[in-house]
Amino acid sequence: MNAETLLNRLKDLKNTFETEEQNLTNLDRAIGDGDHGVNMLRGFKAVDEKASGETISDVLKSTGMTLMSSIGGASGPLYGFSFVKMAGLDHDEITQENLKEYVNTFKDAVATRGKVSGGEKTMYDVLLKATEHLENGHQLTEEDLQQFAEDTKALEATKGRASYFKKDSIGHMDPGAQSMVYVLKVLSEDV
Ligand code: ADP
Ligand code: MG
Ligand code: MG
């Protein structure tokens, strides 16, 4: 995947988040404050309007800076910072071979910024499983990603607003895990 394709796909996430806004809102209403759909749509509307770049790194950096300045809430800095971190990798294209470097960098950035580890019922759980999946030599499909998000249902939240729900968070999917499915799909599909 070259820079132009990446930029187009990231801009097109605006349409995905338009379609999925209500779904994400409902997930965040159950174990949060009900704004994750609005937050993600606001962020990717801004990406559609403002993100630019001629190289993979420039596109990722521009996207990250735009997300940081447009999304309120916990997810804005987490997504924004992670895209800026991925911009630090130096490749002309994203390929099946180097994809694991991007996903691994994304994972480490969320861990650093969110002070989070696996099993805390966040977007991080999807990144962790995606990294393991790629490192085991598998392709990352949308079905795999969706399963990783579904797996957060069984967990008790210990980070973010969902942690206030304690054991009542069990049985609900984490909203950030679901938005991460859409974001990782764009990075990993048909590269
Ligand atoms: P807010 O919780 O501030 O309203 P959002 O609703 O946009 O922000 O995002 C909530 C999502 O952010 C959660 O579903 C979770 O995946 C993620 N999240 C929250 N806190 C953390 C954290 N410390 N580390 C990793 N992810 C987190
Ligand atoms: Mg919220
Ligand atoms: Mg909020």
Task: Describe the protein's architecture and organization.
GO terms for molecular function: glycerone kinase activity; phosphoenolpyruvate-glycerone phosphotransferase activity. It is an enzyme of class 2 (transferase). Pathway: Polyol metabolism; glycerol degradation. Its EC number is 2.7.1.121. Residues 4-189 form the DhaL domain. The chain contains eight helices and no strands. It has 191 residues and is mainly alpha-helical. 64% of the residues lie in helices and 0% in strands. The termini are close together. The mean pLDDT is 97. It has one domain: DhaL domain (Serine Threonine Protein Phosphatase 5, Tetratricopeptide repeat, Alpha Horseshoe). 48% of the residues are buried. One magnesium ion (MG) binds next to loops.
